[in-house]
Amino acid sequence: PPAASLIDGRERGSVTLLDRRGDVFAWRGDQFGGEVRVGDVSPHLIHAILSAEDRRFYRHYGVDPRGLIRAAVVNFRAGGVVQGGSTLTQQVAKNVFLTEERSIERKLKEVPMALAMEIKYGKDDILALYLNRVYLGAGAYGFEAASRRYFGKAAQFLDPAEAAMLAGLLKAPSRLAPTADIAGAQARAALVIGAMREEGYLTEAQAQQARAEPAQLSRAAAARAGGHFADWAMETGPDYLTDATTEDVVIRTTFDPAAQAAAEAAMRAVFDGKVRPGSRAEAAIVVMTPDGAVRAIVGGRDGAAGRFNRATQARRQTGSAFKPIVYAAAIERGAAPDDVVMDAPLTIGKWSPQNYGGGYAGPVTLTQGLARSINTVAVRVSERAGRANVRKVARKLGISSPLAEGPALALGVSEASLIEMTGAYAAFASGGFDARPWAIREVRVRGDKD
């Protein structure tokens, strides 16, 4: 097939998530930065790739006997396949037409395919396929995507240290990805810089500078902010434009990096100053505006994306936090804040709710009952409004988790997630308007003009 038809080898699309100001803060899926040719990227990148992977690329015909002999000796001594010895052309042939299986049979298949590719395509076409198709960790396919993912810049602007780091990832992209192991990526890059110096692509001064000032992640890549927010936003969007997308999708969200940083700092302060060392206690935070726009999510002490998100996935008994919903149901049914309800012993069937601390206050207003979180008053208000109506109001406020049927409903025995409860309270803050949590402002397919 024509080389141009083989440029994008991904099986699925990607999602790029933007914060409320339009800046990238997270990536999902298989990222592809767009087609690049040899002349579109930094010369340092071409030099780094050739130095690390195939120093004789422009001097062989797809198969390098020297490399094959070297790999055969190493593999014989190791008693198995530990070194490939493949040329760039062979690697492209494997990437396009074969599997990742490490076997002699697959290696033999590479040879005729590589020779055929050299006949059909020019060297720069083969190198372009390599530039666009190889996997470089963190969901990035191709050097343009990896450059933007790790350094926040196009591949044409890479300096020697950055180019060496990307070329170094080819050995083990998932393990050496700088987002996973920056020290390992820098160490591997140092070896590539040495190879570039040996090949004459760098002067000694340039090589020393590249080693002394190793590549660093961009601020967005290093921060890895909003991982739990991004996970939740992906869950709330349509599947065909998120997890199952075959397109390259850009989603503009309500995420606020400043709010996220403040929430994470607040959680660290609590655990550093108020929780004993070694404690397995957990916490979660949701920051939301009164209209339901979620600004930040901290899903637990370990905020890494993909981990269990206690803000959206964990369900806990709501306790007294559920009581405002009970009173809202009563007011919706015609009760007034100064209506009087008795705080006195109460038995419903075989169940008798108790007040915290014991004792009873006698007649109190609804306002006083809520302010003092009196259990017997909450139950009486719930029974008067009707449990079905309490559940109805809870549903209107966005609580979708199962709700208890019995009278203990009023005391928050039902479980709900933190984000559900935050959305319910946001409705109170907005004056009663719908405040169901939301994260997605806009979804577009990359390349669309509208």
Number of helices: 18
Could you list the spans in which at least 5 consecutive residues all have pLDDT below 50? none
CATH topology of one domain: the name is Penicillin binding protein transpeptidase fold
CATH secondary-structure class of one domain: Mainly Alpha
**Helix content range:** 40-55%
- Report the sheet-strand fraction: 5-15%
Q: Identify the overall geometry.
A: elongated
Which class of secondary structure composition applies to the elements?
alpha+beta
The end-to-end span amounts to 33 Å
- Overall pLDDT level: 90
Give me the Rg, rounded.
30 Å
Order of helices and strands: EEEHHHHHEHHHHHHHEHEEEHEEHHHEHE
Can you tag this structure with a few keywords?
Penicillin binding protein transpeptidase fold, single chain, four-stranded mixed beta sheet, 450 residues, alpha+beta, two-stranded parallel sheet, Beta-lactamase, 18 helices, 12 strands, elongated
How would you characterize this protein structure?
The structure is a single chain. This protein is an alpha+beta fold and 450 residues long. Among the domains are: 26-223, Penicillin binding protein transpeptidase fold, CATH 1.10.3810.10; 317-416, Beta-lactamase. It contains 18 helices and twelve strands. The protein has a four-stranded mixed β-sheet, covered by helices on one side. It has a two-stranded parallel ribbon with strand order 3-4. The chain has a two-stranded antiparallel ribbon with strand order 6-7. Strand 1 (14-18) and strand 2 (24-29) form a beta hairpin. The longest helix is centred in the N-terminal third of the chain and has 17 residues, at 104-120. It is elongated. The protein starts with 13 loop residues before the first strand and ends in a 5-residue tail after the last strand. The mean pLDDT is 90.
